[in-house]
Amino acid sequence: MKRILCAILAAVAVAGCATESTTQGVAWGAGLGALAGGIAGGHGSDALIGAAVGAGIGYVVGNEQDKKKAQRMSEESRPRNYAHSEDTAPLGGTSWRLQDWSPKDAKADFRAKTVAFGRDGWVTTTTTYNDGRTGTEVENYRVVGDTLIVNKGDYLVNYRFSLQGDQLTADNSKLRAILKRI
C-alpha cells in the first residue's frame, strides 16, 4: 500500500507544473492505475506499473482538455466581429486609395495609403512610406448613420463620412481624408 501511495504522490509531483486539467488527469490516472495494477497483479511492482501507465493516460486526456479550454478562451476573447450588414454597410467589402490628406496638426510622412473595409467589421490600412517601407494596420470598424467608428485596443475614433459616387470623404477634428474606390 505504501508503494501505491508513493507512486500516486510521485505522479502528482511530476504533474505539479502542468495545468489544472492535466494535473487532475495525471492524479486520477495514477490513482486508478495503481489500484487496478495492485488488484490485478497483487504485487507492489504491479501497482507501480499501473500508476505509471495510468498517469501517462491521465496526462494525455488532461492535456487535450487544456488545449480545448485554451482554444475556447481564445475564441471568446477575440473582439466582436461586426458581421451584420447594418454595422458595416455601406463600406463593407469595399477598397479605397487615399487621394487627398489634410492633417490639421502634422505633416504626413507617407507616399500612399489604401484602405480595405471587410464585411466582417475589420478595416485594413496599408501605408507606403516615403522611404519605401510598407506597414499594415488592422482595426475594428462599424458604421452608425453617417459616422464611421474605428477602434483597436485602447482607442476609438469617430469620423463623419460621406459617399459621392466613387469618392469617400472622412473627417474629424484632426484630419480630412478623401479616398477613391479601387
General description of the model:
The chain is of the alpha+beta class and 182 residues long. Helices cover 40% and strands 36% of the residues. The mean pLDDT is 80. It is rod-shaped and about 85 Å long. A hairpin with a 3-residue loop joins strand 7 (167-171) and strand 8 (175-181). It has four helices and eight strands, in the order H-H-H-H-E-E-E-E-E-E-E-E. The chain has an eight-stranded antiparallel barrel.
Give the strand content: 35-45%
Order of helices and strands, N to C? HHHHEEEEEEEE
The N- to C-terminal Cα distance equals 77 Å
Dominant shape: rod-shaped
Side-by-side strand order of the widest sheet: 1-2-3-4-5-6-7-8
Oligomeric state, counting identical vs distinct chains = single chain
**Which value, in Å, is the CA radius of gyration?**
29 Å
How would you characterize the largest beta sheet?
8 strands, antiparallel, barrel
Structural class: alpha+beta
**How many β strands by DSSP?**
8
Which regions are unreliable across 5 or more consecutive residues at pLDDT < 50?
none
Mean pLDDT: 80
Number of helices in the DSSP assignment = 4
Helix-residue proportion: 40-55%
Short description:
The protein is α+β, with helices and mostly antiparallel strands and 182 residues long.
